[in-house]
Amino acid sequence: MSRVSDLLGIKYPLLQGGMAWVAESTLASAVSNAGGAGIIAGGNAPIDYLRDQIRRCKELTDKPFGVNIMLMSPNAEALAQLVIDEKVNFVTTGAGNPGVYVPAWKEAGIKVIPVVPSVALARRLVKAGADAVIAEGTESGGHIGQNTTMCLVPQVVDAVGADVPVIAAGGIADGRGVAAAFMLGADGVQLGTRFLACSECQIHDNYKNAVVKAKDTDNQITGFYSGSPCRCIKSRYTKKLQEMEKNAAPPEDFEALTVGSLRKAVVDGNVDEGSMLCGLIAGMITDIKPAAEIVEEIMGGAEKLLGRTL
Ligand code: TUI
Known about the structure:
It is a single chain. By secondary structure, this protein is an alpha/beta fold. The protein folds into two domains: about 5-200 and about 285-305, TIM Barrel, CATH 3.20.20; about 215-275, no CATH class. It has helices spanning about 5-10, 25-35, 45-60, 75-85, 100-105, 120-125, 150-160, 175-185, 195, 205-215, 235-245, 250-260, 260-265, 290-305, and strands at about 15, 40, 65-70, 90-95, 110-115, 135, 140-145, 165-170, 190, 220, 230-235. An eight-stranded parallel β-sheet has the order 1-9-8-6-5-4-3-2. Strands 7-11-10 form a three-stranded antiparallel β-sheet, with helices on one face. A hairpin with a 7-residue loop joins β10 and β11. The longest helix has 16 residues, at about 290-305. The protein binds ligand TUI. The site of ligand TUI has 18 residues, from β7.
């Protein structure tokens, strides 16, 4: 068993990304039932909805699953308490430094696994008590840092020391990517984009099909100049946003375009006005299949390449 499987009590050291608006109980439970670690994303969602999602997930699986807390959410503090009240197995965090919450989570026996886009933050959070870190490269979909998976993972592995497992994220969607992550010193992987094109993923079919159709170059980073870069499938929406950035459009114009854009993609399937967050590896994804098949195929492929069980 890998150290990540040991830590989380799962079969395979594979986590499903905590994608805002996307990662809900149906997807998370399917990944957990497949032997990986499913994750419910907090995003900006209301606490009552998230409590229901956690409880629904417990009904759909008896395996461990986690909750991702997006630290820029106004509900982050309430969700930090909810995961304690609901005795969630583990927490991942994104878009900020979760340091203030770590002592209470540890006290409650919750495993803490922050996403880190840099070596400095990895060091800081390990000192604060993180059980593992997710080193996320800029190949990922959504809100991203600037370092690539290939460069970031080995540097984080060296920085955190032998006792702390590192989970690689960004640009991984098959056995070759998993094997490469392990060669870089990772003890586990987190996949988001591959699970967008998954039968149990509840996003609108238009969004799902856009992931499958995307080529290697059908990808665009928005928000680059505002300091909040976000990777999406290239669309009318991303082109308009980039045009507005170039022309330094007023903040109210950005707000009019971006507010509710994730909902438009995920719920309405509006591929022109919605923001279809998606990683760079979408170009390699050509089919939609059940989570169990995805997990078995990827981990089987990695085990063959590495010549050992994971
Ligand atoms: O969080 C993500 N990806 C996301 S979150 C999201 S929803 C969203 N909504 C509104 C604004 C922004 C996002 C869509 N995609 N990935 C994990 C991640 N975390 N990527 C980068 C970071 C990160 C950045 C800075 C983590 C920590 C951090 O710390 C800065 C500090 O405080 O030291």
